[in-house]
Amino acid sequence: MITRKSAREIEQMRRAGRVVAEVLALIESELRPGVSTGHLDALAERHIRGAGAIPSFKGYLGGGRYGKGPKAFPASTCISIDSEVVHGIPSPHVMLTEGDTVSIDLGVLFRGFYGDGARTFPVGAIADGPRRLLDVTREAMEKGVEQARQGNRVSDISHAVQCHVESHGFSVVREFVGHGIGAALHEEPQVPNFGEPGRRERLVAGMVLAIEPMVNAGAPDVLLSAEDGWTARTRDGSRSAHFEVCVAVTEGEPWVLGRPRVHDVLHGVGR
User: Fold this and answer.
1) Which of 57, 62, 80, 231 is the most exposed place for a label (fewest CB within 10 A)?
2) Does pTM top 0.85 for this prediction?
3) Residue 203 in contact with residue 151, Cβ under 8 Å?
4) Domain boundaries, the chain
5) CB-based contacts of 116: which residues, under 8 Å, 6+ apart?
6) What's the pLDDT tens digit per position in 172-194?
7) What is the 3-state composition of the chain as percent helix, strand, coil, each rounded to the nearest 5?
8) How far apart are CA 100 and CA 80, in angstroms?
9) From the centroid of its chain, how far is CA 107?
10) Which alpha helices (DSSP H) does 35-146 contain, by range?
11) Strands 208-211 and 178-180: what pairing?
């Protein structure tokens, strides 16, 4: 069932989105060669709990498209490096190196509502190819956000993402998709990053969607780790990138929750 959120509920989700944005900015400030992914995860959890929120990934049991681990996810963040697409498990034994690209994905529960977000960062200097992959994935997400308007359909988002990605010679992962979000971390509708326009559910004000393209430099196929049951990697070993924001459909412009709007800036609205 698709739920429409009230203005009060979207405000709570905006606050959750601010916590997610703060954590991503904090992790970005700590990224450097020699830092462990376990250290980054500990920083994230400390900030989330200090903000009065709960890390929603820790203890998540997965299922369906959103993770298939035989055990609950053990960390507050998913940290995936280079050819890892999503759901990488942080570890004090995994160190970042110069030239890596690292995807940080996290969710929080704040006063009964969820926020979810992801970004892929460079570690130190990276080559032009990986940099282009990151830029195109971020741009594709923004193309999808632009389609999150009342009266459009879910597949208008999907088509915008796919067209931008494939026009640059990259491929969209099919196994993992975006989703509705609200009082549950994963709600209907699913939001694929591929498909023909003008199909699927019609968008109406009050819907909140997590738009999250995962893009591979090579083929779209992924493999799930037999070792931990969570980490998804590209089948061909190519790099992958992942960007995600939560977007409220309004009667006007799409609102990325966690980013200030012009109205908020003018009226001093904060967290």
Assistant:
1) 62
2) yes
3) yes
4) 7-261
5) 20, 56, 106, 107, 108, 181, 185, 210, 212, 244, 246
6) 999 999 999 999 999 999 999 99
7) 30, 25, 45
8) 10
9) 9
10) 37-50, 128-146
11) antiparallel
Determine contact, residues 68/18, Cβ cutoff 8 Å: no
Q: Which two tokens stand for residue 237?
A: 């070993």
Written as six digits, the tokens of 157 are 């988002």
DSSP 8-state secondary structure symbol assigned to residue 132: H
Distance separating alpha carbons of residues 219 and 240, to the nearest angstrom: 10
Distances (CA, A) of 169 to 147, 163, 220: 22, 10, 11
Task: Please name the residues in contact with 10: beta carbons below 8 A apart, sequence gap of 6 or more.
Answer: 206, 208, 248, 255, 257
Give the containing element (helix H, strand E) for 242.
Answer: strand 240-242
> Is the per-residue pLDDT at 263 higher than 60?
no
Per residue in 1-35, pLDDT (tens digit) is 899 999 999 999 999 999 999 999 999 999 999 99
Q: In this predicted model, which residue has the larger pLDDT, 199 or 37?
A: 37
